[in-house]
Write a structure and sequence with these properties.
Layout: E1 2-5, H1 8-25, H2 37-49, E2 54-59, E3 62-71, E4 81-88, H3 97-111, E5 116-122, H4 126-134, E6 138-149, E7 152-162
Parallel strand pairs: 4-5
Antiparallel strand pairs: 1-2, 2-3, 3-4, 5-7, 6-7
Helix pairs in contact: 1-2
Length: 172
């Protein structure tokens, strides 16, 4: 397994497979409708415009999983905080792929001088919660009944990791 920066041309179809599986079969994504290639193109453009990484774990030219982050909230004082996501292909869950891509993503956040990483996780997703705790994330709150999917209310738990960066934070 090695890490690579994912591109639309080389990886959009594989990312779609992973995301659409999560949309259709889990509460990892509070979405109902599978995504399209057009959606992925806009997603890649937004990541590129914000200088946000999309890190993939690849083995034998197969995308095992990926992680990325983006803007947490659009106001300037949040400039040192990002919200991340991590997804693993169903065939590769339980193989430490999530741990690997998240470890790499944390290093990217440090190198870009971010201070806080936030993950919004379905409160029943014990696997993702365990992964985040293993990486040092702490529970920072839960919004009850934040979503509705599969005929039930979903609670959204937030986990955060405080990084030692930036070295010299500034207002403005």
């Amino acid at each position: 397994m090695h890490f690579t920066d994912l591109t639309f041309q080389a990886h959009a179809v594989a990312i779609l497979e992973i995301l659409n599986d999560a949309i259709l079969h889990s509460t990892s994504l509070y979405d109902y409708t599978p995504r399209t290639l057009e959606h992925m193109q806009r997603w890649f453009q937004a990541k590129q415009a914000g200088d946000f990484p999309i890190v993939g774990a690849v083995a034998d030219d197969v995308l095992l999983g990926f992680a990325s982050y983006g803007t947490f909230r659009a106001w300037p004082a949040y400039k040192y905080t990002v919200e991340h996501s991590v997804y693993v292909h169903p065939d590769h869950r339980g193989c430490r792929v999530g741990l690997a891509v998240m470890t790499e993503l944390i290093e990217r956040a440090k190198s870009q001088q971010y201070h806080v990483m936030i993950g919004g996780i379905d409160a029943d997703n014990s696997t993702s919660i365990a992964l985040h705790k293993r990486l040092g994330f702490s529970h920072s709150g839960t919004i009850q009944h934040a979503g509705f999917k599969f005929g039930r209310w979903l609670d959204l738990a937030f986990y955060q990791l405080i990084l030692e960066t930036p070295t010299t934070p500034m207002d403005g």
